[in-house]
Amino acid sequence: MKYIEEFQDPGLARRLLDDIHSTVTRPWALMEVCGGQTHTIIRHGIDQLLPEQVELIHGPGCPVCVTPLEVIDKALEIASRPEVVFCSFGDMLRVPGTGRDLFQVRSEGGDVRVVYSPLDALKIARQNPDREVVFFGIGFETTAPPNAMTVYQARKLGITNFSLLVSHVRVPPAIEAIMRSPNCRVQGFLAAGHVCSVMGTTEYPDLAARHRVPIVVTGFEPLDILEGVRRAVRQLERGEHAVENAYPRAVRPEGNPAALAMLADVFEVTDRAWRGIGVIPDSGWRLSERFREYDAEHRFSVTGITTREPAACRSGEVLQGLLKPHECEAFGTLCTPRNPLGATMVSSEGACAAYYLYRRLELRPAAPRPATTPAQPAAPTAPLEASPVV
After folding, report:
1. What's the pLDDT at 51?
2. 275 to each of 66, 144, 305, how far by Cα in Å?
């Protein structure tokens, strides 16, 4: 359990919370751009332990949730074809498209299979040369490299009955779009550590300087989140706006050079639509011209797609941080994990799913007072200027 239990230590959590309580003097709004971090925050009640002045806003950090409805409807159409074996990670099967999902396609006779790696889909293609095998490649910078490697391997092995339905998105342009929104309240960001483990941190300094917001790279355990909040609040209180790496055990400034080289070879940057948000310039990837033959959208030429979002679903506002899940009128009534209106309720990283799973069904109660206050500490503690989370 190394690197898990030690990052859930209640004593260290108390020290971090005490430091945040003693530092904050005014209201601040921070956004985490990672669905995994959102689930950690809600599961452990971190947002309720923080001072009332510190608000955590849930951003568009769930890759399943931001996959545009048009792409999901294209996936449903392709998966319905008799010559196709459609492969996907399991969390995409119950994401609602316009009127149905991949589970329904499978119940109607479509060959829809859950795989645990894109290489599993490539193996199925090798075993079934008379079928067209399509893998649904979604996600942020974290999942793009293995999908790129799979296409590269398909080319190397001469496998021609494999293709990728691509819906990859990039985090920095999303942060840019959030900060340019006239409704933006965000004053600092907690950046996702797994994204930065691939891409590094080189894209963030310009964002931080241009919009005068601190960006702190954090991990996914409770102490990671608290340390990220502590660093961001300290910067805001001092009037600073720098990029800090609070996840050095996994993130290097240069990222992963091998993964970056693979991405540059197989993909090219493009504009991409985000579900519930709209088109964000330069926010996605598509297969480059050299690998375009493996692009399922080109191979199957799906046309005539007409999308329709449920009128009662407000997941777009949730993804933009304008609405907390339990503030939606349909939450927990018309919209549940069994009958989801939007992807944020069904995805394992969705904010609505987190609020439902951990019974956050009402508006935030008054934050509890810390067990100890900075003026009367329970015991002497070492200063936290240097982070204990390394």
Report:
1. 97
2. 5, 18, 15
Q: What is the enclosing helix (H) or strand (E) of 274?
A: strand 267-274
Helices (H), the chain: 10-23, 35-43, 46-49, 63-66, 69-79, 102-107, 118-127, 144-157, 171-180, 193-199, 204-211, 222-238, 257-266, 296-300, 315-319, 343-346, 351-357
Here the tokens at position 259 are: 């993964």
* CA–CA separation, 121 and 294 (whole Å): 13
CA distance 17 to 196: 25
| pLDDT score, position 363 | 52
For the chain, helix (H) and strand (E) counts, in that order, are 17, 11
Helix (H) or strand (E) run with residue 218 in it: strand 215-218
Cα separation, 178 vs 317, whole angstroms = 12
* 329/57 Cα distance (integer angstroms): 19
For residues 215-234, give the mean pLDDT: 96
Q: Nearest 5°: phi and psi at 168?
A: -90, 140
Say whether pLDDT at 367 is over 50. no
Helix (H, G, I), strand (E, B) or coil at 228: helix
- 274 C-beta neighbours (distance < 10 Å), count: 23
Check residue 123 and give its pLDDT. 98
Take residue 142 and report the two structure tokens written for it.
């974290």
Lowest mean pLDDT among 3-17, 169-183, 246-260: 3-17
Q: One-letter amino acid identity for 356?
A: Y
Question: Could you give the maximum distance between any two Cα atoms of the chain, in Å?
Answer: 73
Nearest 10 degrees: Cα torsion 363, 179, 69, 342: 0
Amino acid code (one letter) for 258: A
CB 88 within 8 A of CB 135: yes
By CB atoms closer than 10 A (0-12, 13-18, 19+), residue 90 is exposed
- What distance in Å separates the CA atoms of residue 354 and residue 2, rounded to the nearest whole number? 26
> What is the distance between the alpha carbons of residues 280 and 272, in angstroms, rounded to a whole number?
6
Tell the burial category of 2 from Cβ atoms under 10 Å away from its Cβ (0-12, 13-18, 19+).
exposed
Structural tokens at position 123 = 């193996």
Q: What's the DSSP call for residue 89?
A: -
Which residue in the block uniquely carries the two structure tokens 């999942």? 143
3 state DSSP class of 257: helix
